Amino acid sequence: MTNDPLLQPYQLKHLTLKNRIMITSHEPAYPEDGMPKDRYRAYHAERAKAGVALTMTAGSAAVSRDSPPVFNNILAYKDEVVPWMKRLTDACHEHDCAVMIQLTHLGRRTGWNKGDWLPVVSPSHHREASHRAFPKLIEDWDIERIIKDYADAAERMYAAGLDGIELQAYGHLMDQFWSQRTNTLEGPYGGSLQNRMRFTLEVLAAIRARVGERFIVGVRYTADELASGGISANEGLEISRILQATGQVDFLNVIRGHIDTDPGLTDVIPIQGMPSAAHLDFAGEVKQATELPVFHAARINDVATARHAIANGLVDMVGMTRAHMADPHIVSKIIAKTEQDIRPCVGATYCLDRIYQGGDALCIHNAATGRELQMPHNIAPADHKKHIVIVGAGPAGLEAARVAGERGHKVSVFEAAAKPGGQVLLSAQSERRAEMISIIDWRIEQCAKQDVQIHYNTWAEAADISALAPDVVIIATGGMPDTDVLESGNELVVSSWDIIAGDIKSGKNVLVFDDAGDHAGLQAAEILANTGAKVEIMTPDRSFAPDVMAMNLVPYMRSMQKLDVTFSVTYRLMSVAIAEGKLTASIGTDYSDYLKEQTYDQIVVNHGTLPLDDIYFELKPDSTNLGAVDQTALIAGNPQAQVLNAQGKYQLFRIGDAVSCRNTHAAIYDALRLMKDI
Ligand SMILES: Cc1cc2nc3c(=O)[nH]c(=O)nc-3n(C[C@H](O)[C@H](O)[C@H](O)COP(=O)(O)O)c2cc1C
Ligand code: SF4
User: Fold this and answer.
1) Neighbour-count burial of 8, counting CB atoms closer than 10 A to its CB (0-12 exposed, 13-18 middle, 19+ buried)
2) Where are the beta strands (DSSP E) in 10-67?
3) How far apart are the two ends of the chain, measured CA to CA in Å?
4) What is the pLDDT of residue 143?
5) From 548's CA, which of 1, 93, 276, 640 has a CA 20 to 30 Å away?
6) Which residue, among 77, 82, 113, 93, has the nearest Cα to 44 in the 3D structure?
7) CA 278 to each of CA 267, 282, 284: distance values in angstroms, whole numbers, following the listed order
8) Which residues pair with 391 in a beta bridge?
9) Spatial distance between the Cα atoms of 118 and 154, rounded to a whole number of angstroms
10) Residue by residue, what is the 3-state secondary structure of 315-338?
């Protein structure tokens, strides 16, 4: 018997949860045709197998047709969801992991121009900033049908054998009724708090009438909107008591904040550089004020904080959601006392930003997450030990080294710099993004366990590599900034990396021309603005920094708006000239032949990287595959077996930005999917 507070069982009504760790509801946007099919099931089953006690599936599963998904959610209004949810539930139950689902009606938090093109409904006409639909004021017949839809959806989940459901009430229809910010109704559903809660109480009653007393029903709700005119902490406590008094609610899953804007959402779900466990004490206050079990998640991404939450009785079940995306095996590692091996969630929130912009949730540094059907979380040993030589110790090179080491190969890594990390070192230069370095640190620790030899300050020449007689050579040398994008004056500009690395001092009046649209442009601009420089960010695109995405943009804007950074969209820097120490920028646009001139004293170009690939091309002629990747084999998960040069001495591959400028996830995925079969 262990006395670890996290590993103690928890009795939720009749249901024994085997430990205190749960995954809260989060839609990774994996449904196919609105159904949780094989990919979805494999994702949850992996985490169930590794010991999580409760997985709250879906996220905003739609109960009604006029609540069309905003990021490919499960369609709980369809009967065909029952067999799919049953298969998922059975797969998790096999590992003694309880399964529930979050059901919702989004109200105004969606769009009308998708799905069945039905008008969006809400208890006011107020538009939500994030999703932009102007809602129809909800009518009595809408309320009646939506209550029935909730009950129908709950009954489907009951039929599928789930242990329970959770109703979403933060930013969605349910709390749009609660909050005076979003409820302008009079009469039975507007006005007093009791009236504003009426819809919820009727939904609960309708659900209970279908699923009985035993089925677990909880509410995930904002108990303090932290917004002027919204639900206050006091009103939130009152709401908690009203929910408890119904006798129909089995748990409260506490949220603090509002999600109708990107900054609001980011405060509810803090990203890297923001406080850890920001709302945990508040959840503890709700627990004190009610007798219901309390669940909570918000950036509790390390085991020590989770343990503190349980040991101090702040919550009954602690959510570690993104932490489980980064490492599905947290619980099994706690049990095995190998917590130090947990792949850390670095809070990059690439996962959540991607559900809106990229189509599915992927972890920045675990390329197996969401790809459980093809990519292993545990690396299998190889049949034959090989000597693998890797050039470059950035994210791609180190992931290749880690995977090769776990396969049991002899691995030698050569890195020109004194430290590992490549471009991640640059990202981590910003205090706010310092956690990124854990992507590297974790791999260095894992490599050390596999006896991977890493040689720093070593510029590998092709002849040195050949002399080692390797079986496989991996080129992961990354890239160098490409500023050569102007008609003239390329020699007068500096790169975003020069600024981030501190190699070039900030000017006073600076133009950052960013047509890569990634973190480096904004990161450089923020560093410059922090020195007191006047900074203008210019992009030829119609919006700036598209690859930074919604939640990641929030901390940049908070910092840069205060520093008066300005943004010019749809303009292209054409050329730069110098006269009397001033730089004159010739500025055009892709939209017309319009041209203007502006002066600055420093111009920074952010235009991605060009591959550092000399060594690859030098090694290519002596390789068996002539550097070629058999893409069919790669995608199918088969070993690389192409022989294009029978006299070749080794297989040769290149990965990450040594191929072309992409991002950290792509670099790590390149490495994992190649090396797992070598
Ligand atoms: C990809 C993704 C999708 C999410 N979707 C939902 C959702 O549909 N409903 C919900 O209540 N929370 C959603 N969340 C929020 C999580 O449940 C959780 O509150 C949040 O990630 C903070 O917990 P963590 O720091 O342990 O990740 C989502 C989170 C992620 C990462
Ligand atoms: S992308 Fe970042 S926040 Fe999301 S799970 Fe991975 S490490 Fe955590």
Assistant:
1) middle
2) 10-12, 15-17, 21-23, 54-62
3) 41
4) 98
5) 276
6) 93
7) 9, 8, 12
8) 414, 475
9) 23
10) CCEEECHHHHHHCCCHHHHHHCCC
Q: Which residue has the tokens 């930005």?
A: 657
Q: Give the per-residue pLDDT at 551.
A: 97
Map tokens 């920045």 to a residue.
364
Pairing of strands 216-222, 251-255: parallel
Which pLDDT score is estimated for 500?
97
Strand partners, 604: 494, 512
Q: Contact 342/330 with Cβ under 8 angstroms?
A: yes
Query: CA–CA distance from 375 to each of 46, 203, 279, 325, 671 (Å)?
Result: 12, 41, 34, 14, 11
* Mutation pick for ligand 2 pocket among 327, 351, 366 (CB with most ligand atoms within 8 Å): 351
User: pLDDT, tens digit, for every residue of 21-61?
Assistant: 999 999 999 999 999 999 999 999 999 999 999 999 999 99
Interval between CA 27 and ligand 1 midpoint (Å): 7
Which single residue is written with the structure tokens 């850890």?
276
Handedness of CA 22, 338, 341, 49 (dihedral sign): negative
Integer angstrom CA distances of residue 334 from 296, 309, 315, 339: 20, 16, 19, 5
Q: Are 535 and 565 in contact (CB under 8 A)?
A: yes
- Is-contact 643 626, C-beta < 8 A? no
Amino acid letter, residue 377: H
For β-strands 453-455 and 387-391, DSSP reports them as unpaired
Measured in residues, the chain has a length of 678
- Ligand 1 pocket, 351 CB below 6 A? yes
Q: Is 1's pLDDT higher than 80?
A: no
